[in-house]
Amino acid sequence: MDMLFIKGKYKSALEVLIEMKNQDVKFSKDTYILAFAICYKLNSPESFKICATLREEALIKGDVLPRRASCFAVALALNQNQVAKAMSIFSQIMKPETMTCMNLNIIIHIHSNMLETLMEILKDAAKGNLSSFVKKQEFSEEVLAAVREKVKDIPSLRATFDEIYRKLHISGRVTTHTLDAMLCHTPRGRTSHMVLVNKRTFNLRTFQPLSQSLLAE
Question: 28 CB contacts (<8 Å, ≥6 apart)?
Answer without folding.
Answer: none
